[in-house]
Each structure stands twice: as C-alpha cells, then as structure tokens.
Amino acid sequence: MYDKAIEELVNRLSQDASYKFGDLVMSYPEGLRALVMAVVQSCITANLGTMPKEERELFEAAKSRMVVMTIPAELDPRKHGGQKHEN
Question: Are the C-beta atoms of residues 15 and 66 closer than 8 Å to each other?
C-alpha cells in the first residue's frame, strides 16, 4: 500500500512538472527553445552541486526509475477537453 501511494504521488508530480516544463519551453519562440532547454539543464546541474548528499541520492534514484514521454503540442489532451493541468 505504501509503495502504491508513493508511486501515485510520483506520477502526479511528474505529470505536473512535465506540463509546467513543456509550457515553459513552448512559451518561447521556436528558435529559442533549444537554448531554454540548455539553460534549464545547466540550472539543474548547478543545483545538484549544492544539494545535500541525501537529496542527490534521491534525485539519482528517482531519475533511474523514471520514464518521461513527450507528445507533440497539437496532441496535448488539455487542448481537447482531456485531463486538465493544475497549477
């Protein structure tokens, strides 16, 4: 039961963060999106260096078990009456 609750939390968190990140990237003009992604990745790398060891270990463990899929913006279910993203 505990593992199921954690899995559900991680799934919700990952969907929420994925939508927010995708929306952030898509808010920039097409020619700048790769640069935005590079900035975000650099920020993540910089922040990892200042995290306590336990948090870095949690980050690495979560990342090793995570699968993220992307879809084209025109297939975003939020635009077609599907699941809504909550801020």
Answer: no
Q: Considering the entire predicted model, what is its pTM?
A: 0.71
Task: Give the pLDDT confidence of 40-59 residue by residue, as tens digits.
Answer: 999 999 999 999 999 999 99
Domain ranges of the chain: 2-80
| 21, 14 Cβ separation under 8 angstroms | no
Would you say 72 and 26 are in contact if contact means Cβ atoms under 8 Å apart? no
Q: What's at 3, amino acid-wise?
A: D
What does the buried/exposed string (b/e) look like for 16-40 if buried means 16 or more CB atoms within 10 Å of the residue's CB? Answer: eeebeeeeeeeeeeeeeeeebeeee
Torsion sign, CA atoms 59, 60, 66, 69: positive
